[in-house]
């Protein structure tokens, strides 16, 4: 049964990618349709918000490329405040669903495919608990989808996973949403998240781990 569901999941992702027209997942494509989407959102604000939320959840759950572009579009359509609520909740729901799929459907495959990484993650969770997940979300060690897959095989609870992911993803979400407010002026995604900003996020993610290490060191003395 698990193998059948796994095959169906792969087929859905492949079908979505095949049905997308060439160049659909690009900054230029999002900028091209921005005016039409903004007009539709202005006329149907609740429907637009619901459609955007559902689309974002599907993209993040199935690890379909384009979450960053959707975040920029969210900034352009909904602004910083409403966009933050929509994207943060949708991204966290998608990440949690992906984690649950890994835990209950893809466990054997993830264990075989990422055995070495899984050992590292298990040691980190055993040592630092939810702090380790917080660090993984902010520090660019593993891609977003891989964190979901690997954490699905750990004993972390669903509620804690949801809460920690929500908080840890907020800084980057706000940065991209703010950039999306000037979507038509953007020339490259690389211009948004600078190396200095990536380093800042990484240091922020490591802060709980460092603080725990300092406390342990002080207790030993």
Protein model, in words:
The N and C termini lie far apart (54 Å). This protein has helices at 2-19, 27-43, 45-61, 67-104, 107-113, 115-128, 130-138, 144-151, 158-180, 195-220. The mean pLDDT is 84. It is mainly α and 221 residues long. 80% of the residues lie in helices and 0% in strands. The protein is built from 10 helices and no strands. The longest helix is centred in the middle third of the chain and has 38 residues, at 67-104. It is globular and about 50 Å long.
Name the descriptors.
mainly alpha, single chain, globular, 221 residues
Put the structure in a nutshell.
The protein is mainly α. It has 10 helices and no strands.
User: In terms of per-residue confidence, which ranges show pLDDT below 50 for 5 or more consecutive residues?
Assistant: none
Give the rounded overall mean pLDDT. Answer: 84
- Cα separation of the termini: 54 Å
Q: How would you classify the helix and strand content by structural class? A: mainly alpha
Describe the largest sheet: none
User: How many β-strand runs?
Assistant: 0
Rg value: 19 Å
Topology overview:
Elements: H1 2-19, H2 27-43, H3 45-61, H4 67-104, H5 107-113, H6 115-128, H7 130-138, H8 144-151, H9 158-180, H10 195-220
Helix pairs in contact: 2-3, 2-4, 3-4, 4-8, 4-9, 6-7, 7-9, 7-10
């Amino acid at each position: 049964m698990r193998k059948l569901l796994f095959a169906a999941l792969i087929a859905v992702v492949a079908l979505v990618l095949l049905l997308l027209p060439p160049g659909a997942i690009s900054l230029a494509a999002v900028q091209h349709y921005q005016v039409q989407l903004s007009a539709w959102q202005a006329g149907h604000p609740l429907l637009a918000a619901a459609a955007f939320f559902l689309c974002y959840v599907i993209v993040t759950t199935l690890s379909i490329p384009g979450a960053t572009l959707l975040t920029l579009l969210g900034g352009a359509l909904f602004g910083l405040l409403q966009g933050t609520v929509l994207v943060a909740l949708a991204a966290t729901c998608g990440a949690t669903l992906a984690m649950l799929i890994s835990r209950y459907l893809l466990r054997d495959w993830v264990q075989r495919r990422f055995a070495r990484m899984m050992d590292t993650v298990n040691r980190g969770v055993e040592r630092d608990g939810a702090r380790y997940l917080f660090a993984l979300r902010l520090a660019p060690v593993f891609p977003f989808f891989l964190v979901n897959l690997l954490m699905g095989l750990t004993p972390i609870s669903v509620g804690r996973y949801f809460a920690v992911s929500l908080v840890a993803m907020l800084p980057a979400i706000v940065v991209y949403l703010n950039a999306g407010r000037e979507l038509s002026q953007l020339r490259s995604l690389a211009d948004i998240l600078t190396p200095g900003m990536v380093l800042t996020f990484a240091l922020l993610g490591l802060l709980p781990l460092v603080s725990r290490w300092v406390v342990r060191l002080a207790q030993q003395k």
